[in-house]
Automatic annotation (TrEMBL):
Gene3D superfamilies: Vaccinia Virus protein VP39 (3.40.50.150). Coiled coil: none annotated. Belongs to the spermidine/spermine synthase family. One of its GO terms (biological process) is spermidine biosynthetic process. GO terms for molecular function: spermidine synthase activity. GO terms for cellular component: cytosol. This is PABS domain-containing protein. The active site is at residue 92. InterPro entries: PABS, SAM-dependent_MTases_sf, Spermi_synthase. PROSITE patterns: PABS_2 (PS51006). It comes from the Eukaryota. Residues 1-111 form the PABS domain.
């Protein structure tokens, strides 16, 4: 939650495609997919139970602009690097060290 101001600052009216690695309670994702926001957000969550919890308890609703995929975020990023582009990618997963997240991106980008 502490990163929300930074995410909001990075997103502007030209941002159309957002990728989130990790779902949590879906608060960030719901915010960016609801009107008046016009962003398309794809979320990759490794744990199907988290998606169920977010739907049942936090109001997660998928629609044409908001989809949640149950998949490994690292593997999704590897496949993504070959085919699709996003304006912003943010990680809302549970790594405790920033260096862990940096390694994932560096390994993918330096292939």
């Amino acid at each position: 939650m502490a990163t929300i101001p930074y995410i909001i600052e990075a997103i502007n009216e030209k941002t159309s495609k957002i990728l989130s690695i990790g779902l949590g309670g879906a608060n960030i994702n719901n915010f960016f997919s609801e009107p008046p926001n016009k962003h398309n957000i794809t979320v990759v969550e490794i744990d199907a139970a988290m998606k169920e919890v977010a739907q049942k308890w936090f109001g997660l609703e998928e629609n044409g602009r908001h989809q949640v995929l149950v998949d490994d975020g690292v593997e999704f990023l590897r496949k993504l690097a070959e085919n699709e582009k996003f304006d912003i990618i943010f990680i809302d997963a549970c790594h405790s060290k920033r260096e862990d997240n940096e390694k994932v991106f560096k390994n993918i980008l330096n292939r």
